Amino acid sequence: MAASERVKPDPSMWLPLLDTYELTTLPGDTVLRGTLRPDLRVDSPEVTEALETWPGQAHVSADEGGVDLVLVYQIKERVRPGLTVHLVLFLATLVTTLGSGALMDGVDPFRTRFFEYGRVDLPYPSGLDLLRLSRGASFALPFLGVLLAHEMSHFFAARKHGVRASLPYFIPFPPYFSLIGSLGAFIRLRGPTVRRASLFDIGASGPLASFVVSLPLLVLGLLWSQPIVGEVSLATPFVIRFMGDPVWLGNGLATWMLAAMFGPAPVGETLILLHPFALAGWLGLFVTALNLLPLGQLDGGHILYAMGPRIHLRVARLFMLALIPLGFLWWGWWAWAVLVYVIHRGRVGHPRVIQPGPDVGRRRTVVGWILVLTFLLTLVPVPIQL
Fold first, then answer.
1. What is the pTM of this model?
2. How far apart are the C-alpha atoms of 372 and 374, rounded to whole Å?
3. Is 213 in the same domain as 348?
4. In sequence order, which residues have a C-beta less than 8 Å from that of residue 372 and are 6 or more positions away?
5. Which helix (H) or strand (E) holds 284?
6. Domain range for 56
7. Cys staple from 149: which of 117, 198, 209, 225, with CB 3.0 to 4.6 Å?
8. 55 and 100 co-located in one domain
9. Phi/psi at 330 (nearest 5 deg)?
10. Which of 153, 160, 148, 144 is nearest to 203 (CA)?
11. In what order do the strands lie in the sheet with 226-228?
């Protein structure tokens, strides 16, 4: 049906078939939820005909209590946003991450100057040297590749389930203040998620992609990393140099195992200067762990809620409390807890999906437990130490 022919759906076409129904208008969408008459089944001719003529998503769930229908329809054709904003943000993030990589490589592509503000010297760029900027490519390109794989996996999973989603928004940040030149990336879901299975697939796709992409980067980077003389511990066995100063990076189960197999020196006994590829892989695993925290609408929240709505809230509250002692190891855990609390408006639980049943099934449950294991492997209690 052409966009110009679309009108707000009339539930009267379903009234003869429904035992109960409820029509809800959301921003940009209409959701019709109801139950079929007891004498009707999904394959009844009149139901089949009505589903075929419905101009939108149709989700059917049958159990002992009857047949539950959720029908989603876009009220009006939205104006598709252009690529300009996404492209500008990506290019800006490319510059800032290239700048971070160059500063790690010991060159300054920004001709940095300092503004004296009281007793603090604030850095700022006074120019741009493209040749020096290119020195950061060995970090910026694989790191952006991890972020892109993560977000595009979310994007394609959402599209597969008929949920409208934006392309990734990359977030640039001055490399003087973020070390890596970015605050990550995100996509926006612009339509309702009806089923737990859809929610699971959308949530799980990103961490799976970033984990798979990060592993070979970290392995290859460890093979190219170097042992150096310096203060070392098992908690922070890695180091990078940024603007000439050392920055220690932490250790988790995955990084410990991979460094033990592919690193240039015994983990925790000799300080390891990470190659930019290794840093990109390390960051990819760390981003995976952050997203797998079972809080709110983080990926981990999506996954755990989809697997078991009843236990999700209790686990989320437990993990929020766990961030308090973790903050004594690294203050960033407190900042992350506050950020999650503010973004989710004081809630750590996950909002209900429109159609709670059916469950996600055995295959998705297995993948969910694999992702729980992935979270435990990639969690780094002390990510960074200056």
1. 0.87
2. 5
3. yes
4. 292
5. helix 276-291
6. 3-74
7. 209
8. no
9. -150, 120
10. 153
11. 226-228, 271-273, 238-242, 245-249, 384-385
